[in-house]
Amino acid sequence: MTRQQARVYIACGLALMGLGFAISGPSVPNFWLWMTLPGIMIAGGIIRLLFRS
């Protein structure tokens, strides 16, 4: 993953998280699924930006 791709991962992860929140809302059973999977994308992008030069 390049540094540019890391930024895209973070931006897309945030967009997916917002979409998931808008679609499901916090009261449905699959809410944490909508939050976890984009969260993994965001974490991967942040780790790439912080720990690889």
Automatic annotation (TrEMBL):
Keywords (alphabetical) are: Membrane, Transmembrane, Transmembrane helix
This protein's source sits in the domain of life called Bacteria
The membrane spanning regions, by residue number, are 7-25, 31-51
* Protein name, as recorded: Transmembrane protein
